[in-house]
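Input sequence (788 aa), recorded before submission:
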Amino acid sequence: MNKKKKSIQFKISRSWLFCIGLFLSLMFFAGIVFAETAKSNDSKELFKKSKRISSVIYFVSDSDSIPADGETAATLTVLMENKKGKPLKGIKLGFTIASGEGTLSANTATTDNNGRATIELTSSTEGTVLVLVKTKNILPKKKKLLAISVTAVQTSNLVLSSDKTKLSADGTSTAKITALLRNEKNNPIIDATVEFATEKGIIPASATTDSNGMASVNLISENFNGNVVVTATYIDTTATVTIEFVSAGVINLVMTAVPGNITADGADASTITVTITDANGNPVAGETVDFRNALDNDGDGTISAGDTLDYGSLSPTTGTTDKDGVITTTLTSIVTGTIVVEASSSGTINNTTVNAVAAGEVKNVGLVSGSSSILVNGGSTAITATFSNITSGNAIFTTSLGNVSVNDVAIAPDGTASVTLIAGKLTGIAVVKVSYYDAITNSRIEGSINVTITSDTPASITVSATPDNVRAGSGQAVITALVKDADGNPVAGTEVGFTLDNKPGGTETLDTSMAVTDANGIASVNFIAGELTTPLFNGIKINAYVAKNTSVTSSTFLTISGEPFHVALVFNDFGTPLTENGDGTLSCPMAALVSDVHGNPVADGTLVSFGVATTQIVANEADIDVDINGDLDKLDKILLSSEDVNTNGILNSGEDLNGNRVIDTIEDINGNGVLDVNEDTNSNGVLDPGEDVNGNGILDIDEDINGNGRLDVNISASSIVTTSSETVDGVAVGDLRYGVNFVERFQVRLTAESGGVIDSDGQYLVLPRRDSDEGKNITNQSTFITWP
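Predicted structure, token format:
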């Protein structure tokens, strides 16, 4: 009995063991299957990622322009969607600057769950920056170009002026106050608000600058005598002008005598000029002025009791002012002395003095320099002033550059006074002046001399090529080297050598290999292109070096570009600024990237012709009573090649989309504007002799869709046009112009051609609509469905 129980127990244990083993085997097999399935799914997903994807790319910026401060950034956003408008995740994008100067925060990015990728652009250089984005991991590849304007960092300069220095204090007289507002480059700041204020009188609170950067207002006087300060303010910049409010009726009489010293020989003359203005500063014409003169015996500068009248001779002694309020007379004398000349008009009197001296007693000064040029940083030369008829007193020396050894020098008995001019750290022209005050004649005797301060120790050299991209066979560029010393001063008169590296092996050359720097430290030679192009962008290296110190060297690069080999048309659609031309048309920007066989940008000035051809008509689903995309509505927009939707040859209700009562058909498939016939008679894909039926030089296709023998298109060739343009850094920018009545009514194909090379892809777009508030393109190209 016990043995039987043990046997049963053993059998049960073996059964359990078998079950457990079977279970584990199944689990192991399931694990293998699951792993293989996962691998298979990964492979499928990888396969999916490499499939062709129909996509739409949008490229926009949060700002059309940024200041050239190197800090302010424009945020550039790419949106990737499929044809149904759903975002595409994981699309790899590459960003480059196609034209202009700027810095991108990243050169690559990947779209997020919302199909978006964002980078930033900064720039320190004014101009237009064209940023190009391309897709990397999908086919077909997409590309977009976005233009950002980089504007000058505006620091303002405000100058305030008045057309009158004096204003009659009568409460009605006015003066025109003008504020001139300019930026750091001296260009006018336009449409800026300038605020005005005055201590007395009445003035408008503000005015707006015009195209010249000027803002003007009128100041009205009040019953107040004295100086009045007028203030203009623009942001943090202020400027002032002072105007004197004077009693009405007062005239101003100003006198000058040139020269102030004459020889007492009866021939040498001084011209006395009188200018008369009214209380408002306006010249007074026709005002009578009387002149008289006397020997200034008491030295008070006026004609007074005890002075000898008519000491000299005046001609004339009376007259009237001209339209500028000016009258002149001349004074001569045959005797020496200080002569007072008096002018009087309407009770106003003024005086000036002229010194008549004996022949041989005229006082003057001349200066000589030991050297006409000295070296910077301590170079020196003696400056000697020689006075005529002055043997004592002090001469005052000054210089505009460097230093003089002493400013105040006693004049020696032989009439000379000397100083030493010592150069500082700056080069340039030093104007050394000497001045002597003659207490006898109450005048100054002055003279000057120029000395050049130069540098002869080159420490640095920079070199540039203008332009830096030239056409093979005929292009030329100016190679300019600037040599400076350690303090940044230009070094004149030094030899600079030029050499070429990495030449493509043609006849490219420099017109000379050596040049001498001018006064500004500049030496230049000419580069002449050969018939061969450079295989790489910036392929030629141009070296410049200082001949007497070859360790001072620098280089620049230059491209010899060939004829156009590849043309890529780039068009910004959604979010692009559209221009309203004021004649019922809109303009939309587009660009073409043109390169030679080596991929180098073509030379500046290469002509690019943009073309446009109408390809489809825009309608609504409701027009043909079909729900094309199955979204249970008939609101979607579709693209048709003909208005005859049901192809019955009759213009049915709803088919006349433009209301011209004609069935419109887009037949000009190749966009050449003519009705072509089937010319490829042997179907070999090339134009054989005798096949050019219409003689237009191209292999055309059969375009007469409806067989009526004519080209049916409901818009003229001039209704939708493009402009031609020339390249700058390999980029040509043009625009598409079309009537506002064609907005979202037609699809067109844009093309670009340069040197016989045509953009192989072109760009298709529905003529976009302009947002009236922001002025941007608001037509989403992905919402249009081609049918059938």
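Checked by second reader. The chain has six domains: 55-151, 157-246, 252-357, 364-454, 460-561, 566-666+713-786.
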